[in-house]
Amino acid sequence: MTAWLLDGLLAAMLVITAVSVLASSSLFRAVVMFIAFGMLMALAWMRLQAPDIALAEAAIGAGLTGVLLLDAVAHFRRGPGNAREGEQG
Q1: Is the pLDDT of residue 84 over 80?
Q2: Alpha carbons 16 and 83: distance in angstroms, whole number
Q3: Rounded to an integer, what distance in angstroms lies between the CA atom of residue 61 and that of residue 79?
Q4: What residue spans define the domains of the chain?
Q5: Which of 4, 35, 41, 61 has its CA 20 to 30 A from that of 21?
């Protein structure tokens, strides 16, 4: 009974975070929610007894992609005319 409750709660949290990523008006909040979604997906893969996929999801889906998206948001906020000294482009 407890396993079904945990799985249902996990599924609901996945849907809620996915909708909040899509509905967010703030880019930073959307990226943070995307990272949370990736971590919840890793937990879902662990519940499905697929630790290799869970590890890949945590490392690539939440970790690497999240960092790259946060960097992209930072570049987007600076704008094209506000590049740091020494950067080209």
Answers
A1: no
A2: 36
A3: 26
A4: 2-78
A5: 4
Output the CA angle 39-26-63, nearest 5 degrees. 25
Q: Which of 39, 32, 40 lies closest to 62 in space, CA to CA? A: 39
How far apart are alpha carbons 23 and 15 in whole angstroms?
12
pLDDT digits over 20-32, tens only?
A: 999 999 999 999 9
pLDDT at 86: 53
Could you tell me how far CA 50 lies from the centroid of its own chain? 19
Whole-number Å distance between alpha carbons of 70 and 29: 10
- Average pLDDT of the chain is 90
The reported pLDDT for the residue numbered 88 is 57
